[in-house]
Each structure stands twice: as C-alpha cells, then as structure tokens.
Amino acid sequence: MTEPQARRDVPSARATLRILMHLAAQRGPVPAQSIATAVGLPRSTAYRLLAVLQEEGFVLHYPELGRYGIGVSAFELSSGFSRQEPLARLGRPILAALVDRIGETAHLAVLHGRDVLYLVEERAPRRPALVTDVGVRLPSHLTASGRALLATLPRSQLRALFPDRTAFAQRTDAGVTRYSELTRLLDRVRADGYAAEDGDVTAGKASVAVAVRDHAGWPAAGIAVTFARETIPPERWPDLAAEVHLHAAELSRRIRGRL
Fold first, then answer.
1. In this predicted model, what pLDDT tens digit does every residue of 149-207 receive, in sequence order?
2. What is the overall mean pLDDT for the chain?
3. I want to staple 252 with a disulfide (CB 3.0 to 4.6 A). Which of 27, 118, 155, 257 is the partner?
4. What are the pLDDT digits (tens) for 34-61?
5. Alpha carbons 9 and 59: distance in angstroms, whole number
6. What is the pLDDT of residue 93?
7. Whole-prediction pTM value?
8. Which DSSP string do the residues of the chain spell out, in sequence order?
9. Are 101 and 250 in contact (CB under 8 A)?
10. Are 157 and 183 spatial neighbours (Cβ–Cβ below 8 Å)?
11. Structural domains for the chain
C-alpha cells in the first residue's frame, strides 16, 4: 500500500473505531441511522462499516429489531484488557507518586457488585497496615472510594444495588444504614467533588477519595487516601482531596478517560 493510500484509509479506521465506541456506550442495540448520526457518517458509509464489523464478529445485527449491538469479538478485546490488569499496572506508579507527595497510604479500588475490590495499595513509610489490602472486598457504601464511585451512578442503578436495609452491611457503629441516608450522602459527595469516610471502616481512621472515569464517562476506579483521623482534621480534607484529584486525572488520562 502506498503512503497516499494509507492516509486515505485512516478516516475509515477512525470511523470504525467511533462506531465501536458508540455501541459500547449504549445500554442496548441501536438503529443504524442513529449510529450514523451519532458518529457523523453518511448512512451508506455506516451500513458498509457495520457490515464489515458484523462479518468479523465485532458487531451483532438483530434483524427483528433492525438494530446493531456489540459482538463477541469486542467482548474478547475487553477480556484481554482485563487479563492485562491495566488499571493496576497504570495505577501503581501514580499511587506511588501520590504517597510520596502526601506521606499517607493510598489505594485503588473498583466496584464489584455492592462491594469495592482493592487492586493496588501503596503504603506510606511508617504507616500501619490497613484492611484495604490487595484482593480485599469491602461494602462500597462504607468506603470513601466506594462512595466516590457510587456517586457517579444513575439513581436507578444505585437503587438496584441497595433495594432494602439488608443491603447495608456494617463494620462499626458508624455508617449508612438506609437508602435515604445513602442518597443524601452521595448528594454531598457530588457537591464537594470528593468522597470521605470517618471511622466507618476502621475506628480512628478516615479516608478521602475521587472517582476515575473512563472514555465514556463511566467510573473505572476510585483512588483513596487513608490516614489517622487525629493527624489530618476535616478542615484539611479538601486540600488532600485536591491532591487525589490531580493523580486521578492522570490515571483517567492514561486510560483515555476523563475526570
């Protein structure tokens, strides 16, 4: 292929990727016309690219609905993404830099059902071990990272995760116990721009956290810092959260997301 030919092929490659990204962000299959409109393509071009993607297994066609959705090959790509543990690999040096900056332990967690699953922990020098070790799961509504992530979810999804009071597990005497309390807490998280917890996981310990978003704006992970409550009073938490924001933004950039 000559260089001019290669340059002519680039727009098609970009259009194909835009179609896949658009489909991946949808809740279900969508009509070809809406795909063409969303990605700014002529309808004939969109149909042509969808046909190729369908042949290769990246797109499924639902003939009865006249709609298109993500195919198995696209799922295999996402499985490869998971196998390579990109969040942990990309997040570890960012957390190390955050710990060097603030001198407190930091961790990276993802939502896993109603829990958060900890993928990375960077312990600060001369700081004790925490319960947030790698592989540990904790109730999301109790943790700062979990609250930061829950605050990004649609209300319907949040309600599905917490249908009744039995969904609110507790570790200490503190903590959220009802859905109405959770929604008020998450409203405050959105207003403040960061999440916090104060003794809800471990007595005497507090945390602040920020959500990291992916390319579609969905929560990919939460970065949190945990510290002894007596060493950093609440009036200093916004400044601490600002440092976490900077590092969360860098991780979001690295996974081609946004803060």
1. 999 999 999 999 999 988 888 777 767 889 999 999 999 999 999 999 998 888 889 99
2. 87
3. 257
4. 999 999 999 999 999 999 999 998 999 9
5. 20
6. 94
7. 0.71
8. --HHHHHHHHHHHHHHHHHHHHHHTSSS-EEHHHHHHHHT--HHHHHHHHHHHHHTTSEEEETTTTEEEE-HHHHHHHHHHHHT-HHHHHHHHHHHHHHHHHSSEEEEEEEETTEEEEEEEEPPTT----S--TT-EEETTTSHHHHHHHTTS-HHHHHHH--SGGG---SSS-S--SHHHHHHHHHHHHHHTSEEEESSSSTTEEEEEEEEE-TTS-EEEEEEEEEETTTS-GGGHHHHHHHHHHHHHHHHHHTT---
9. no
10. no
11. 3-79 (1.10.10.10), 85-254 (3.30.450.40)
What are the tokens at 215? 């390319």
